[in-house]
């Protein structure tokens, strides 16, 4: 089974993906590292630009029939059996990205993406089985336990549980207006 863990930068993808893979006994794959290793994409202005179609094809070929947790904000473009879209309060994302040294424009772009569900919408356009999980105020262990419970119960689709419209005013200073 291929489980893709995706979300806006700063939601906890890597932490959750590694823990989920460990709990399930699955292989963990960081998509950025995988793309670099396979020569998929190129560096442009200090960012790796990845050809999503090439990534999807190579990943599908290399991991077909394997149990894998794929970690990356492009993982929802893979042919996955299940896509987990991690969400977090946009203000929390802003704080985390600021700590990581993100510039104002990139920070604003990602806060806005979380605020208006960009990753979730993309995931739903690409996949049938999408589960949305709000990580706000939860430990990584709690998030993984929630995911495992949903998987055990056979839940393949759970979306629409997050609405950040009430925090819009709080994140306004971070947005690129």
Give the helix/strand layout.
Elements: E1 2-7, H1 13-24, E2 27-30, H2 31-38, E3 42-44, E4 47-49, H3 52-63, E5 68-71, E6 82-87, H4 90-99, H5 104-115, H6 118-126, E7 130-134, H7 140-152, H8 168-171
Helix pairs in contact: 1-7, 4-5
Task: Provide an overview of this structure.
By secondary structure, the protein is of the alpha/beta class. The protein has a domain at 2-87 and 126-162: Rossmann fold (3-Layer(aba) Sandwich). It is built from 8 helices and 7 strands. It has a 5-stranded parallel beta sheet, sandwiched between helices. A hairpin with a 2-residue loop joins strand 3 (42-44) and strand 4. The mean pLDDT is 93.
Order of helices and strands: EHEHEEHEEHHHEHH
Shape: globular
What's the CATH superfamily of the domain at 2-87 and 126-162, by name?
A: P-loop containing nucleotide triphosphate hydrolases
Task: Report the end-to-end length measured between terminal Cα atoms.
Answer: 41 Å
CATH level 1 name of the domain at 2-87 and 126-162: Alpha Beta
Mean pLDDT: 93
